[in-house]
């Protein structure tokens, strides 16, 4: 026997049977194309951040790699779950549980990594003389390990909560609904814990990022501070604050859908859910590559070189004609 929130989800996703084949193909195509595009951009960024020593040995870029990695995995998992839902593929509870846990793991890593990145920018602007001694590669690695350990602890607690669910009372482990985080909230304790943990993480992250932003703004008014560096750090922190807010909305996505399902028709809910997926799940996971890929003077030329597949250099070489070889 499943709980009320699962029954509500079943009512929501059951509306997909009223979607025509053409509409499902259209939605899947419109959603899949930007997702695949940014998966390619993120993968390119990950390759770039491991291709040069300056990126591998700089704390700022190490943190960016961790953020992009978690965002890319989450984006891929979310797209997989969306395709399974659109194709009406219902996995077993263990398979869905693994996918949901991995999604939850990477979903929490992103805001925690954003906090560490904001603190790094705060130290760089407010304590420039001590930045090299505080923000080292070793300390950065420790911070990343702490982030992953804290996120893994959440997954472990969720698994322990699932062990209390009487799976033996189910007629079959085969799901009759699409796989999602709501579908794996198999008890009231699990639902309460998820909301409490998510609220704690995002409130703490929001306070930390906001305090860093205020600290950078105050330091920017100081005569001894590099104005250009402080302004760039302030803009970066503001973008991270927006990114954190969008990530927070992604955790509220399920609650919003459940609330709307009580007053709207099923088919409309399915369409709203697809729209929310684009703006709440895909968009925040793409901001990191845009923020750093386009704004960072070190990454941007390398990124444009790889994204253009060396077309620019090929065009230049053809325009110049044959060149003499030098021994």
Written description of the protein model:
- It is a single chain.
- The chain has helices at residues 4-13, 21-51, 53-56, 59-86, 93-126, 131-134, 137-163, 188-220, 227-260, 266-295, 299-307, 311-320.
- It is built from twelve helices and no strands.
- With 327 residues, the chain is mainly α.
- The longest helix has 34 residues, at 93-126.
- The N and C termini lie far apart (77 Å).
Element layout with pairings:
Blueprint (H helix, E strand, L loop, with lengths): L3 H10 L7 H31 L1 H4 L2 H28 L6 H34 L4 H4 L2 H27 L24 H33 L6 H34 L5 H30 L3 H9 L3 H10 L7
Helix pairs in contact: 2-4, 2-10, 2-11, 4-5, 4-7, 4-10, 5-7, 5-8, 5-9, 7-8, 8-9, 9-10
**H/E element order:** HHHHHHHHHHHH
How many distinct beta strands?
Answer: 0
Estimate the global geometry from the Cα principal axes.
Answer: globular
- Which structural class should the secondary elements be placed in? mainly alpha
Number of helices: 12
Radius of gyration: 23 Å
What fraction of residues sit in β-strands? under 5%
Distance between the ends: 77 Å
Mean pLDDT: 76
Low confidence ranges: 1-18, 321-327
Short description:
The protein has 327 residues and is mainly alpha-helical.
Give keywords.
327 residues; mainly alpha; 12 helices; globular; disordered N terminus; disordered C terminus
């Amino acid at each position: 026997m499943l709980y009320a929130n699962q029954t509500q989800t079943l009512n929501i996703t059951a509306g997909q049977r009223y979607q025509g084949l053409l509409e499902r193909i259209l939605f899947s195509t419109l959603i899949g194309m930007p997702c695949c595009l940014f998966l390619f951009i993120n993968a390119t960024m990950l390759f770039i951040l491991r291709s040069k020593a300056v990126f591998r040995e700089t704390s700022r870029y190490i943190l960016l790699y961790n953020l992009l990695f978690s965002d890319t995995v989450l984006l891929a998992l979310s797209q997989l779950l969306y395709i399974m839902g659109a194709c009406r593929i219902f996995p077993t509870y263990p398979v869905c549980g693994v996918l949901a846990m991995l999604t939850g793991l990477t979903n929490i890593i992103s805001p925690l990594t954003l906090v560490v990145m904001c603190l790094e920018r705060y130290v760089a602007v407010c304590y420039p003389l001590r930045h090299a001694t505080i923000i080292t590669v070793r300390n950065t690695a420790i911070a990343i390990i702490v982030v992953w350990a804290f996120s893994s602890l959440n997954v472990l607690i969720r698994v322990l909560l699932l062990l209390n669910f009487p799976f033996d009372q189910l007629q079959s482990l085969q799901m009759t609904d699409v796989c999602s985080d709501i579908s794996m909230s198999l008890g009231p304790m699990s639902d309460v814990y998820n909301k409490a943990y998510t609220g704690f993480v995002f409130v703490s992250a929001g306070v930390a990022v906001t305090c860093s932003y205020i600290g950078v703004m105050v330091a920017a008014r100081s005569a001894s501070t590099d104005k250009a560096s402080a302004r760039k750090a302030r803009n970066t922190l503001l973008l991270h604050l927006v990114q954190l807010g969008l990530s927070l909305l992604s955790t509220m996505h399920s609650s919003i859908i459940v609330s709307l399902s009580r007053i709207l028709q099923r088919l409309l809910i399915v369409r709203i859910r697809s729209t929310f997926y684009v703006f709440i799940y895909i968009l925040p996971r793409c901001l990191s590559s845009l923020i750093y890929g386009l704004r960072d003077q070190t990454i941007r030329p390398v990124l444009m070189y790889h994204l253009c597949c060396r077309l620019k250099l090929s065009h230049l070489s053809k325009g110049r004609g044959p060149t003499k070889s030098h021994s």
